[in-house]
């Protein structure tokens, strides 16, 4: 769900946050299932296609991605409360390792619009990526990240 253009006569917040504060798009019904009345801010034009109900059914959606990420975190002591170590990376990439009880994960986040590489310096198996068609492993823990991609890799 993206920011919604707000007509000048519907602006509520003088600090300009209204485009991010539009009503939650729950389903494809009138007013996206948010209200039976008139919402205080306009609904997004694509609310019938982009909503919680549609994302819940789509295994490639951001909703489904977050569900997988939450399940991984709940099942991993390293991800919940393990030690944290930042990994040196190129500008625009944030990378770190979480470790606990013999379990290690590397996280790589590319905040740029160009491909970047992240190096965990040990064997790694890709566990999750924001790119739904991505899989694989890296003997030396090196992954090429697509623009704006985030990965989670189990480290060996």
Summarize the structure.
By secondary structure, this protein is an alpha+beta fold. Helix content is 15%, strand content 28%. The chain is elongated and about 55 Å long.
How far the N terminus sits from the C terminus, by CA atoms, comes to 37 Å
* Sequence of strands across the biggest β-sheet: 1-2-3-8-5-6
Helical stretch count? 3
Sheet having the most strands: 6 strands, antiparallel
Structural class label: alpha+beta
The overall strand count is: 8
Globally, the shape reads: elongated
Helix content: 10-25%
Encode the helix/strand succession as letters.
Answer: HHHEEEEEEEE
Low-confidence stretches: none
Strand portion, in percent? 25-35%
Determine Rg (CA atoms, Å).
20 Å
Average pLDDT value?
Answer: 92
Q: How would you describe the overall organization of this protein?
A:
- The chain contains 3 helices and 8 strands, in the order αααββββββββ.
- Helices cover 15% and strands 28% of the residues.
- It has helices spanning 52-57, 62-74, 77-81; strands spanning 83-87, 93-100, 103-110, 116-119, 124-129, 137-138, 142-145, 150-155.
- It has 156 residues and is of the alpha+beta class.
- The protein has a 6-stranded antiparallel sheet.
Supply database-style keywords.
28% strand, two-stranded antiparallel ribbon, alpha+beta, single chain, 156 residues, 15% helix, elongated
